[in-house]
Amino acid sequence: MDTLTDSMGTMLSADKPFSIAILAMGGQGGGVLADWIVALAESQGWVAQTSSVPGVAQRTGATIYYLEMIPAREGVTPILSLMPTPGDVDVVIAAELMEAGRSVMRGLVTPDKTLLVASTHRSFAVGEKEKPGDGIGNPETVVDATDFAAKKTVAFDMETLAAKNGSVISSAMFGAFAATRALPFAKEAYEETIKAGGKGVSASLKAFDAAYLRALKGENDKLSATPVKRLDPLPQTAGHAELDRLLTRIRAEFPEIAHPMLYAGVKKLTDFQDPRYADEYLTRVAELHAADRAQGGADKGFAFTVQAAKYVAVAMAYDDVVRVADLKVRGSRFERVRKEVGVKEDQILYMTEYMHPRMDEVCGTLPKGLGLWIEQRPKVFAFLDKRINKGRRVKTGTLFWFSGLYLISALRRIRRGSLRHFREIEHREAWLHKALEVLPINYDLAVEVIGTRRLVKGYSDTHARGLSKFDRVLDALPMLRAREDGAVWLKRLRQAALLDETGIALDGALKTVATL
Amino acid sequence: MAERSFAREVEDLKLGEGDIFRGEGILAITKALLQSGVSYVGGYQGSPISHLMDVLADAKDVMNDLGVHFESSASEAAAAAMLSASVMYPVRGAVTWKSTAGTNVASDALSNLSSGGVTGGALVIIGEDFGEGSSIMQERSHAFAMKSQMWLLTPRPNLPAIVDAVEKGFELSEASNTPVMLQVGIRSCHVHGQFTAKDNKRPAFTLREAMENPRRDVSRIVLPPATFLHEKEKLERRWPAAVQFVKDNRLNEFFGPEEGDVGIILQGGLYNSAMRALQQLGLADVYGNSRVPIYCMNVAYPMIDDEVIAFAAGKKAVIMLEEGAPEYIEQTLHTLMRRRDIQTKVSGKDILPLGGEYTAPVLVKGLAAFFEANAPQLLGNRPPVPDAEPVLNDPKVKALAEVVPARPAGFCTGCPERPIFAAMKLVEKELGEHHVSADIGCHLFSILPPFNIGGTTMGYGLGPASASAFNVEADKRSISVMGDGGFWHNGLASSVGNAVFNKQDGVILVVDNFYSAATGGQDILSSRAQNARRKTNNSIVDAVTGIGAKWVRQIDRTYDVAKMRDTLREALTTKETGPKIIVASSECMLNKQRRVKPQFNKAVKEGKRMVKERFGVDEDVCTGDHACIRLSGCPSLSVKHTDDPLKDDPVAAIDNSCVGCGNCGEVSEAAVLCPSFYRADVINNPTGWDRFLHRARNAVIGWLQQRRQSSRIVFAD
């Protein structure tokens, strides 16, 4: 053994324990993994210790398991630490991407010594999920940090790999860890440890092996902050004269840069209503495009046109009762649910929809005149609402409910005459009017005005709140139209509006804009 | 029945002389109790000693064989009072709880116990919930030992030391007629290690013998004038006896060289971290060799004056490593030095942080400062100390603060408490915010996003009591929340009784999930399971009406969000005076799944018709506003990006961990959110009638779907 002796004659050994920190969320099997590693080390004649802080953290909270191990030596007992020292951890195993980030933030991963084994899948925290917009943390930030902080990183989606092999993530992490050869034990010793555990052995071994091989590839999963969107190129033909006419229009009337988005819009609207409706859409966007061209949009890559192609389609495909019923009764939807739920051949699937129609939605679906007539008579409205407004469990797989929804979805034919359609057009035109008004003065701002449509979403109260945020953001237009950075500010307002439900952040941002 | 079973581990409790025991700290403690000839054991669950209670409960057979009585006490106070059996009789007893929370509750009985003193060994095993992962206020149990003059053991955090402390603790208690506290930290409770076992011992004197031959001695009862004698006896007889025992048995340990300019005095629990710190400073190795003399106080109270003086005298300086505030031991050390006029310098919290955990990096910093000031020659050839600072200061790492989300513990998937708070949110939208007094238990997670409900928490079962000042004329009522655990622990009398007696005009919401759920799913009085050794199924509603409450509502399915909301609204607006009590009951989902899942799978295997439910979201219908998540927060209800270029924000998605509790559907229905949720009922082993019906329905539905599809002109997907 290496020893150091000082003037006092004390002999000190230079042996150091091998340390592993496992970062997981409660219920992810971090404890199982820790126990496996301890059992493995003990079976190989090492002394191993593990400790953790479970407590209430066993329920979804972030947890750290810490292990130390060292080859046993006759006559001496090693003193092992119960918690990790930042800057002094040999291996960090993270059971989720953000937990890998957390391990770096806690200083457990350092370039001189730490091997990081991380699963790249995401389990979103409440703070990320609850945002009215997109609150998902940027995975690239984590990759940048781990690439910088770790001596070496083995990172891939162990959760999915484990599930594919019928097991849970702990087996996959054990496999990836084995492949790193961080501990001088043979693969068989790892497998023996799993076998000795006695539970779900064959599935665990399968996932272990798959992860082992995957880790040996030495290539980490690539992560991106930008979600993959399907923007198909414009096809030559769609196999139907009416559809081909739409494609021809796109090709003839619009710059190439807008084609994929227009195609997506046309697809959505034929599906929403019919080809004629998609044609109306193209006509409307063509008008906007003409204005764009007139204002020198060519130099700006026709950003206004592309943006309009997206959000006019979104606005025209509004969510009404007919749309919901239409989506719910489709054969393709039945098939998708079967797949999602994983229904086997010998099982039978029924779906129950949770719906809560109100008189508002009924009026919206009625022909404009009738709908308005009822709305203007509060007593009649209230009388009818009392009968309509309640939660309903709709069993779509039964004939009664299916035919009900089927009939509602057939109202598609008279949708153009409905009160809701009338209101949607009003709202849409007011919005586009604002954008067109700004366009000659401030091109970039006009593009952002179009993008503000993103705030309108949801149903009932949520929809109303979205509309009010939309209005409040656009109310700031007079203050911004003459500003060069007007577009930047409007974008900020939109981002603020998506931060919280009640619009506290938006209020703050609006106050700032008012002081400009 | 607790959520974790120790049935297999309990086998290890039968190990005999010379066998090697391998396992967790709490199991080692249980084994040590049996090796010590304990007669009775009690306690109240709570981290970090919940599993100790679970092990004891699962060890029923082993305990029965040895004639050991075990009970899950109603509270820590009940457990402490149980030790009264050792006052007159030579029986050994041990109780356990989470500290300091539990010690607060138990302190009345502990004071009385300490005053009269004990004949048989009385051991209080306290799980100190301090530092990372703690769920309670950060205080020290040390104060209780000092004020009641009980002895406090803080063994080194390894299994042999902890086991030894249990065995010696009983002896110390008997030698000094004083109850002894044994303190173990969160990590040492869960540390995996090994020790050499001994045979289990049957109690020499049984409880039966005691009951059949009762003894009494007025001088042991806490009543003047005996109490004045107790005080004298504590100081003049029991204390010296304890000191003598500790010295004779060398409970405190010395490490490192005998001589040195400086020395380290530490609480036993800090030994491993201190050794790691010394190792990093190049002054110790992993096998316990040290270049600095160390005095390890496995007995934190009382201080053994002679040992400390012998250690400190002749040294230039000593440093006291003592975790937590205030620094009681350090203060005593100063007093001692001053009294004996010893000039050795005493360092401690002058260079170490006043509070917080003493981790290796904290100790490295403190010890380095101490050596630099008093023995710089020791730090000569210092190896580089592990340092993560440069990494942490890098912009790439700092950027993580923006994206890595806080991930506190929260409600589990399918938790029945979630719909209660969703309903409260909905009522808030109608009637405005109310003052909400929270309590201890899983329901306290309501204070976190997405619910953000709850103002204060004053103690277990004290939620409604902590709203008692708000019993004045006002346009709004206070709401107080209390779990079934808290209700039976203390709440029935202190909260409900108090509210009835004082005609408290507030709403009391009792969250009943059939278990003491936050501590690991132990049975309590109102648990609905049949427990052969306990009397369960005692109604909370009967209890509150029995105590005089008039306005009482029972909700037997908390997932009915609309009913929950309407009941709350009624409670907040009714003209009725006095407390408005809502008992909201549904089984803890974690425990339910553990119970039901195997039964379900077995039934499916046997070919029985079984319907499995889970929820889903139609992503085409979902607009990505996440209103549902803000009223739920269920781990299985998440978000995902779709490939639809027209959708900017991620849509809601439900993963495979969904247990089909129905909360999302009920919430979206009650709050009129959106129609994207659906419940999928999967019929396993369908009957012939099921198949026939399904075929018939599908024929019609399929035909209609086909018809619609073919009449549509759409782009191929």
TrEMBL record, chain A:
Outline the extent of the DUF6537 domain.
259-475
**Taking every annotated instance into account, which residue ranges of this chain make up the domain Pyruvate/ketoisovalerate oxidoreductase catalytic?**
26-212
Please state the Enzyme Commission number of this protein. Answer: 1.2.7.8
- One term of GO molecular function: indolepyruvate ferredoxin oxidoreductase activity
Keyword field: Oxidoreductase
Check the record and name the Gene3D superfamilies matching this protein.
Answer: Pyruvate-ferredoxin oxidoreductase, PFOR, domain III
**Protein's name in the database:** Indolepyruvate ferredoxin oxidoreductase beta subunit
Query: What species is this protein from?
Result: Rhizobium halophytocola
Automatic annotation (TrEMBL), chain B:
UniProt-listed PROSITE patterns: 4FE4S_FER_2 (PS51379)
Please state the Enzyme Commission number of this protein.
1.2.7.8
Look up keyword Electron transport and say if it applies: no
Keyword set, alphabetical order: Metal-binding, Oxidoreductase
Domain 4Fe-4S ferredoxin-type spans what residues? 613-644
Q: Name one GO molecular function term.
A: indolepyruvate ferredoxin oxidoreductase activity
Task: Output the superkingdom of the source species.
Answer: Bacteria
Enzyme class comes to oxidoreductase
Q: A Pfam family for this UniProt protein? A: TPP_enzyme_C
Name this protein carries in UniProt: Indolepyruvate ferredoxin oxidoreductase alpha subunit
What is the organism field in this record?
Answer: Rhizobium halophytocola
